[in-house]
Amino acid sequence: MFQTFDSPTSPEQGPPRLAALRALMASEGWDALLIPRADRFQGEYVAPRDDRLAWLTGFTGSAGFALVTADHALVFVDGRYRVQVRAQVAPEFTPMDWPAQTHVAWLAEAFPAGAVLAYDPWLHTMEEIGRLTRDLPSITFRPVANPIDRIWPDQPAPPSASIFAHPLEFAGESHADKRNRLGRELAAKGEAASLITLPDSVAWLFNIRGADIPRNPIAHAMALLRADGTAVLLTDPGKCAEVADHLGPDIAVRPESDLAQVLADTSGPVRIDPQSTPQAVADMLAAAGIPARHSMDPCRLPKACKNAGELSGMRDAHLRDAVAMCRFLAWFEGASTTGLSEIDLVTRLEGFRRDTNMLREISFDTIAGAGPNGALPHYRVTRETNRRLEDGALIVLDSGGQYPDGTTDITRTLVVGDAGAEEKRAFTLVLKGMIAISRARFPRGVAGSHLDALARYPLWLAGMDYDHGTGHGVGAYLCVHEGPQRLARGGDVALQPGMILSNEPGYYREGAFGIRIENLIAVQPAAPLPGGDSRDMLDFETLTWVPIDRHLIDPALLSQDERDWIDSYHATCRDKLGPLLPEDCGAWFAAATEKL
What is this structure's pTM? Predict the structure, then answer.
């Protein structure tokens, strides 16, 4: 099993750790300390060694931060985690509903002028520190070496997995061509180089992969890309034995400790991305007298816009994954649920993915939330929380795989026995939103924020909503969460052909049930319509082909166009998967893909 079911933290561990931290803060003269869930690379995912927020507070969500003073320990989380955080932290920690409650507002009200706020400059971006110092001009900001590391006696060792090459057939473009193409773009803007800190950008640029972060095939590494196409890969050289020939003579491998010298040796402006560059790097450039140009990481958009090779691999990976999912769903339909638990579902589904003989990892810990656990959008089952399946319960099953040719992410909501009328109504409203995104056509220049409301509109009409984005970007055998593209209120990047996103509206009723339906979709040029004008339009190619549970659909709530979409979707599932499924799935598959 890739997934384990141990509890990584427990609430009782928090208070003594908090006391030790406060003692250190008092000895150093700090009035407050910020503890983000971040590492020096500023990606979303952190290695166990860097999961300082979870170690201190017990909160294990993928986003959040703490603010600790002598009298308060505040944990700020967004709507995805408001129930979870209250179950995971001790009473000494106070959950705060961000962004309705912000640390800036709290500090402005509670802290006197001259109070000292300590922070680790490696764990906060330039943009974040710039905003804080601007909004809190009376507070003294003090960069410090990380204090959590000073009181964490059994802190895990740094990850040290070997780096390996990503085959050209799946990458779709050589790393030399990528480096030279992006280098020319730097030169055209008068930039001598760009420092890239996001590990998934580094992996994409050099066509390499790693295993330093659980569930994500990336290595801890930064890179300096020069305008002439040469580069410096900043990582542990001991990880690179397998890729020396792959990297070639134009890429020098240096340890991360050489970063300051590498920057100092660069003549001319260096591009850095304020949204992903640690404040410590900006301080290094300033100390060396190197001018900085602020712009987006040059890899982010090219990485997001998948080429033909990457799209082909993703389609293949999704068909392979769909077979595993269908085998699971056929098993679930025929199984006696008496005695089954959430852990049983996770274990069986991972087994079907392993049977493909191509699974490298799961793409995230499988979410299998039954009944009230399904109302936690990012629920992770442990032996302590493991829930038995009960008649009438809904199950939110969100999972995915990492394959050599692609990354998958799919959610299906299942029901044990018969669903209640309220659950079917809510499920159908969520489905209507998912269909609206799937059918969307839009002009070039439209961003995810413009489309997000399409998924929510049926729920809004019923006085309902959900507290997460409708969709995130997805990498090609990279991170299952990828920017900058998003289907969300804050998704301000125009969608472009080749971008892959999730389409996953949901609904969650605390203490009762949760619903989410998710397919992955790829942006593509839209075919012209009769009678339309010559405007350049885009739409979505569906990548995920797994039946949607017809037991939960109330057809009376669907329009004819929506019913036609579902019937067409299931017909395509039959065409694509029918020849690939084993015989023991036949009866279930035929029934699951019948017309409404």
Answer: 0.95
